[in-house]
Amino acid sequence: MAEPKENLQMEKIVSLCKRRGFIFQSSEIYGGINGFWDYGPLGAELKRNVKELWWNTMTRQRDDVAGLEATIIMSPAIWKASGHVDTFSDPMCDCKKCKKRHRADQLCEDQGLTLIKNADGKFALPEGTKCTNCDSKELTEPRPFNLMFKTYVGPVESEDNVAYLRPETAQAIFAQFKNVLETSRQKVPFGIGQIGKAFRNEVTPRNYTFRSREFEQMELEFFIKPDEAIEAIHGSVVTVPETGHPGEPQPNWGWQAWHQYWVEERVRFYENIGLSRETLGFHRQTPAELAHYARACTDILFKFPFSKQDENGNVAGDELEGIAARSDFDLSQHARFSGKPMGVFDDELRQAWAKLPKEKQDDLWRRYYENRKNYLTKSAKPDETAEQIQKQATDDANGLAKGQYIPHVIEPSAGVDRLILALIANAYTETTKTDDKGKSETIYTMKFHPRVAPIKVGVLPLLKNKPDLVKKALAVRDLLRPWMNVYYDDGGSIGKRYARQDEAGTPFCVTIDFDTLGEKPELLDTVTLRYRDDGRQERLKISELRDWLLARVR
Ligand code: ATP
Prior knowledge:
It is a single chain. The strands form eight sheets. This protein has a seven-stranded mixed beta sheet, sandwiched between helices. The chain folds into four domains: about 10-70 and about 170-330 and about 410-420, Bira Bifunctional Protein, Domain 2 (BirA Bifunctional Protein, domain 2); about 90-145, Rubrerythrin, domain 2; about 345-405, no CATH class; about 455-554, Rossmann fold (3-Layer(aba) Sandwich). It is an alpha+beta fold. The protein is built from 17 helices and 25 strands. Helix 12 (about 360-380) crosses helix 13. The site of adenosine-5'-triphosphate has 16 residues, from strand 12, strand 15, strand 18 and helix 14.
């Protein structure tokens, strides 16, 4: 049977990644370990560039975001409060015949079916579901499988010492919210960003690095005022169109505008590193898909070679990043579970509230009360009574009237590894060249945007046995090296060296030739600069080279 085209494309990408040192299987010499991947020399540079660009864009270039670097293992109480201990699971089922284990929702999806969720929260397989490995219809009922990796802290392996490898970086941000607020001199609205490892014991890792068991996330928690506070201060909450960038943040933005702002900011980020809007897709979660506390969630998708086509041949793509409006759920949970206050005091709100007509105060009070009661009811602990919940919601609404609230949050949460895979798939280009004798050859070019390219410039002396050329080339290398990743290559014909850099995705090469040394006096101290994508060449002064390159690779 013919290999489906998209898998062939993935196979070629996987093969290039291994051949050129972008991605290797973890523990390969021992047969590998499913769901774990290592980044080779080029992959490591690519990843570093992506993370640095995210960090710069999201924290350093903004006044309203601070950074954090927290531990991977944290108090298990965090995962209790966040809901991960009780509900962070995927439905899993086994084939009774061949024993293959499946993620039940994916198994159904692969067969054009939908997993059934019963009113009691339990899952069931729809009629006709079969094992994709052996076609047997004898499958166990789906059961939840918690995705957190468990370990023990200290020498005793007891239940008291259980800890988890974090399944997301976000929770540390919530847990450190107060510390960051107090030390960074930030005021709501502001954000906290973090990049770091996350671990999920995925039932079926697949699609290369797309679904791994160890991966990295780049997450921002952007804290905003509740809409009732905005309304009290500014008279009304501004909403923005659901398409397009809403422009510079405004004080009267509510959660909807902030959410739209972050979706568009993140799209700009992707466009800035070479993923055009046409390569992306969007999925706005439906009310049925949303978590009970979430107001909205927009996934930014990338059209991977393995992404499925719908019946009309359209490809939506697979998730790169989710941007969720999570209400005040997260900080509220930590406030309740830790017993530590997570609210902020907003003097502008207190003053504005005092000036509101009684009717408006009552209206806002009531709406805030209802929202809080709704949250408290849905996340009530078993021993909490309706009276307690009402009292707490009343206290919270009274707090609002005095300028106090728990911030709401917009969360753009991106996966580094998925982005790396998207950048690799997007950059991969294959061309076939036929020479005069009719011999054809396939040329591979990784057309990375210069900002993410692992190597920014190749420095090549035309010949390696001419000391003057080599000396000059080494001087050019040393001139550029403090500023960017340079690759010096003197091995083989110049054509071969260009081809090597094309495969590595190096956007520019400079060649030091006899004209550089002054063979044509007017070309003294100039180099040949070659563009990766079209092979175009031009002459550039060495004295201008650094700034010319920096303008393009940063
Ligand atoms: P999916 O539905 O694909 O499992 P998710 O919605 O559970 O993803 P989130 O919990 O929103 O993912 O995590 C945020 C981001 O982290 C995702 O958009 C993705 O880029 C990345 N991510 C999540 N799980 C994995 C994984 N197993 N491997 C690689 N990246 C991941």
